[in-house]
Amino acid sequence: MLDADFFRRWMTATAALVDREAERLTALDSPIGDADHGSNLQRGFTAVTAALEKEAPDTPGAVLILAGRQLISTVGGASGPLYGTLLRRTGKALADAAEVSPEQLAEALRTGVDAVRTLGGAAPGDKTMIDALVPAVDALGESFAAARDAADEGARATTPMQARKGRASYLGERSIGHQDPGATSSALVMTALAEAAGE
Amino acid sequence: MSDGKLVGIVLVSHSAEVAASVADLAKALSGGGTAVLVAPAGGTEGGGFGTSAELVRAAAASVDRGAGVAVLTDLGSAVLTVKALLAEGDELPDNTRLVDAPFVEGAVAAVVTAATGADLAAVEAAAVEAYSYRKV
């Protein structure tokens, strides 16, 4: 079973990975975006870590809701409301259970990913974070490691895609040949989840 | 009319200068004088380009007189931030609406309409209609 500590580890592991990969995320965001993805997420997850320490939420749902709210408030770019909605909706779906099963997390995360799709209007194949998150959630029934690998593969698969959402979509065919920064950071979030699970 | 209370307008742009200028322009064209309730929420709190949920919340609260708040945005994170705040339920005043309208023309239409004491639905309709003003 997964308790509030597990979810805190997931968030702090995400913050550490985002710190480590911030330059790479921003570099990916330079040719097709506005070169702020790494620094925006860094600011967001630094705020998440600080808020979790200060407020010490004691259920899985409360950890994710607090984290989501911090991201919406502090990121300043589109990834704030998108990741914020992902975590908050996932957290709301977990309600106030003190512990949840991996299956319950998988189901809740699917609710969160659906909310992100509704918010941003992106579908698989649009070269967005959805391209990493959807395969990850599909694989989560198998294991955390499988979800991590599926997200990685999904992020890499965005390279030949033409962007249909966000600023990159203005570039049309020129967006082809670049890995999507949002799908890449989504893969980091899933890597952090597998780390929290010790996989 | 809505009990003599005016609908508030919030203008959310990636740029503080754009939001503030469009607010000034709309006020100047509205003839509503100081009674017009329009607040800009531009850029990040640090003064950079982007969207600040905090500035959006503060702007909406500052123009809320109970008759509703119409929010107009430019693009990208401005749209997504407002939608995410609305989805949260308790972040923005009751009866706050994201209005689907062109930023400059929609803001002028919304502010002019709100200055007459029109209700939120009428303000929204005026702003949305701005999409249909063809220029050529």
Automatic annotation (TrEMBL), chain A:
Segments crossing the lipid bilayer: none
UniProt xrefs under Gene3D superfamilies: 1.25.40.340
Presence of the UniProt keyword Kinase in the record: yes
GO biological process, one term: glycerol catabolic process
Any Pfam family: Dak2
GO terms of molecular function: glycerone kinase activity
Keyword Transferase: yes
DhaL domain boundaries: 5-195
Keywords: Kinase, Transferase
One Gene Ontology cellular component: cytosol
Superkingdom of the organism of origin: Bacteria
Protein name, entry field: Dihydroxyacetone kinase subunit L
Automatic annotation (TrEMBL), chain B:
Domain PTS EIIA type-4 per the UniProt entry, residue ranges: 6-136
One Pfam family it belongs to: EIIA-man
InterPro entries (alphabetical): DhaM (IPR039643), PTS_EIIA_man-typ (IPR004701), PTS_EIIA_man-typ_sf (IPR036662)
SUPFAM superfamilies recorded: PTS system fructose IIA component-like
GO cellular component: membrane
Coiled coil: none
TM region positions: none
GO terms of molecular function: phosphoenolpyruvate-glycerone phosphotransferase activity
Alphabetic keyword roster: Transferase
GO BP of this protein: glycerol catabolic process; phosphoenolpyruvate-dependent sugar phosphotransferase system
Keyword Transferase: yes
PANTHER family: PEP-DEPENDENT DIHYDROXYACETONE KINASE, PHOSPHORYL DONOR SUBUNIT DHAM
Name assigned to this protein: PTS fructose transporter subunit IIA
Native source species: Streptomyces griseicoloratus
